[in-house]
Design brief:
With 632 residues, the chain is of the alpha+beta class. The protein contains 25 helices and nine strands.
Length: 632
Amino acid sequence: MTFRQFALNNVLRNKRLYIAYFLSSMFTVMVFFTFAIFAFHPAFSEGSINQNALFGMAVAGSIIYVFSFFFVLYSMSSFLQSRKKEFGLLMMLGATNKQIRLMVFLENIIIGFIATVGGILIGLVFAKAILLIAENVLIISESLDFYFPTLAITITFVSFIFLFFCISLFVSFILRTNKLTELIKGDKQSKGEPKASIILSIIAAILLIAGYVTAISVREAAVVFAMVPVILVVTLGTYLLFTQLSVYIIRRMKSNKSIFWRKTNMLLFSDLSFRMKDNARTFFMVAIISTVAFSAIGSLYGFHSYLTKGAKDMNLYTFTYSPWKDDSEEVIEGDIRKINTVLEEENIEAQMGKLELNYYELSEQINSVLIIRASDYNYFASLIEAKELHPEPNKAIVVEQSDAMISQGTKASERLMESKITLEDGEKLDPSHVVSTSVMSEYSAYYVINDKAYEKLETPVNTDWRAVWKAKEGQTDQVIEAGRKLNEQLQYKAYSVDYTLYEIEKAYGPILFIGLFIGIVFFVSAGSFLYFRLFTDLDEEKRKFLSIAKIGLKESELKKIVNREIAILFFSPIVVALVHGAIALTALSHLFDYNLMVESALVLGSFAIIQILYFTIVRYFYVKQVKRMVFK
């Protein structure tokens, strides 16, 4: 058997340790290859696809590539730590340090080559489905047909072979083998009782609480200024949480006899502090990476919701026309004819409403407020099937924009409720109540009064025009095309909510699509880190439970202990990341003064469900391995 065959057999016989590393690496290659397929698609170079998508995918590919380097490097270091005894046995058999380094180099090259080829092949299998998804998400007119991506394959293969070569060379170069006795007995040597500083534990709690309180307390622009300090404080607090505070809490629980001596808790806590201390850096890394994934995807999804949610609720008319203040009546009529012509060209059936808007001075504080006669308001309301208003002859109804994204509307309605409308004959109209509606699409509040009372109003201080069209349902494509034409002909005058949302989705789609992929890569990598750490300690766990089983440990008790232990180790960083993510998204909602509760719950809940499923799979194989060794 040659040395290369020996290295290959090492990889094949350590499938349990290498499988997560291999699958994660292959997934990373596949994602990078997917971006390469987009970047070099003929439609991007020959068509008119948004170049922001191309630039975004290039940046995303670079991020994934750089992250892959550190991910693979960390994975290799985990394997090397778990193979001390193997290296010691090889040295007993006469292997030199140079040969061990060469073996590690060849193993990593083999895995890297197979992962690269596998990632490219899987990417090719799902390429058409991914292109179809991208075609819809990116909202492009061109069709992303399947093509054989020769250039994408070449760049992906060369890039990742080079990455694995550099990492293999780097790891084999820095690899240091200890003394033979330390290698053989390394996993059996006592580590000593892990210690935690009470001062550092208190500092950890203070840092986290201070960071959380600050993030939740600040509002609007202050969020931006507080962002960097809060991130630094919470990051340091997270590190101390896993290295100090968690170990301190476990030691305190061990000193509590009512807890420690209860059923199988002694076995659970006996080395939990050791494992928390040993895995502290991994947990810290997983918590931070997961927080980045949660926050990035949650922020992108939340900002998308901020831009689009409520847009149609605030603009219930299909088209709205608002002329410039200095436009003459002839210009206004000409613009309206242009709009009607465009609607006829696109075969859009729509009802039209046109109204002269008159603004009046009520006092020195309120020098321009819109007042509308009830019949005009009710006609516009009938177009969108809104509730009609019928104010009493001596009363006025205050109307504010429903779900307004600015707070001035509410303040204006409060001011109007405190004011009165004076007619020409001296009669005063008292406001009766406030109504929230989207009938006139006015950001500021206004009055609706009885028709007879309207005729007695004094001369308006300002006049404007408003024309609206409400199209029948089922004409979305025609409406969007009409909106595009009107935007070209009457920019800033004619507004189409459907076309505006289409443009937002078109511009924002690539960002959301790319951010989602990067977040998934980070999330999968975080789960892989946990898998590595759990299964790195598996052999030691087998020996421990085998010894305990000799003095009467039952299979049900073993399963219960193992389930609790790996649940604590698995979910500790995930729960911390979820809390971090929830705080970060809360701060984001304060920045925009927009409630992101639903979006945050959806993103964090989805990731939590995925992690629970991942844990269920990992737990099954972990418990199976331990039970097979102990109760064989």
